[in-house]
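Figure 2 data, in text form.
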Amino acid sequence: MDESLKQENDLNLRVRIQKLGRFLSGMVMPNIGAFIAWGLITALFIPTGWFPNEKLAELVDPIIKYLLPLLIGYTGGKMVYDVRGGVIGALATMGIIIATDIPMFLGALIMGPLGGLVIKLVDRLFKGKIPTGFEMLVNNFSAGIVGAILTILGFIAIGPIVAALTQALASGVEWIVHAGLLPLASIVIEPAKVLFLNNAINHGVLSPLGFKEASAAGKSIFFLLEPNPGPGLGILLGYWLFGRGTAKQSAPGAAIIHFLGGIHEIYFPYILMKPRLVLAVIAGGMSGVFTFQILHAGLVAVPSPGSIFALIAMAPKGGLLPVLAGIVVSTVVSFLISAVFLKTSAADNDDLAKAADKVQEMKGKKSSVMNQAIAPQTKAASVKKVVFACDAGMGSSAMGASILRKKFKDAGIDVEVTNTAINDLPEDADIVVTQKTLTDRAKTKLPDAEHISVDNFLNSPRYDELTQRLKEQNENKHS
């Protein structure tokens, strides 16, 4: 009983951590285009850029100091309380921007959601108490008063505190870098990525540090720590050459999608089926970071997704070879270690489905859950909408939805298939398809829907099972 309670607590903790990570990354992810635009302008027009231009270089500082933090603050407030929360979140963020001389990304991650939360609580306070005809007046003035107070509070009190905290963190990171200990960060980063905290780490922690460094030095190594595709590529190459069964067959396609498409989630299941391989990605990550350090590699902005094309585009003038060298080194190290593990592993553990069951047992769940594919006790009686959900709602979910949509079309099944982030799951979804480590989060968001867990985004038997089931339902309906 105690063991069961411990497993449940561990599961709840993991779900809560994933939710927090998703919330942090959710403030940055929608604005990645703006970050990339800033990175391109920086790479092209600063004095050391590809095409130095003094006039156009004037865009660099205002964008990173004002626009990007404001976008994060607005998005954070909007996530809490829609557009009204977004406006107050942006106002609150403006206060701390003006209070400091450094890019206030950390402050935006705090003030944006805070602004949305405060106006949400104020609106609840006045709900049902406003005389008829005065709704617009009260709503506008309440937002104005709350926004003004938070802006002043951010300028006078919160801004200096966050600036001091940011400076302390920067000093600590600088000490780690100068001490040559940065490669040790891979001990945390690589395992956390496999638990689908990759977006949280990259956009919630490393990117703000990177932009602060890049604003002063023109590039930052922090943009390379999480997006480096080398460790994952080494794992997939190892499976391609030394794996067995369905894992070996699907590894080449997964490697292409991972390296060229930048969807890193594609290799996570390959590690989950053989947890020892996390040592390979840690070693690959550490060796890559060490190479980046000694060659002074860095990027001008965060590459998203983590595709080799994005990394090349974000490399500064004269800085491409050090970036590629680190990727190659991390790939080779990860491949060599994973090859040893794969060649010495027992044959009966190499089947992807069997390995998934083994992982489920290690997590304290019944393996039959994965074999049945259906997480709830009952199946949806009438299916009109299937939603493929992942953490960010763009990479793996889009790929899975595309595969499922094609299977439905070939089978003559008229069912809508879409993709989204778990936090944005629509209430009218009849079936939700997720990677197995994210299913629990999806259940908490949409408990009444039917949930299907998959292991391999490219070649899951669950797709064919669902297609066959819906095809039979259609045939029975028309017979």
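Caption note: Confidence is low (pLDDT under 50) at residues 353-377.
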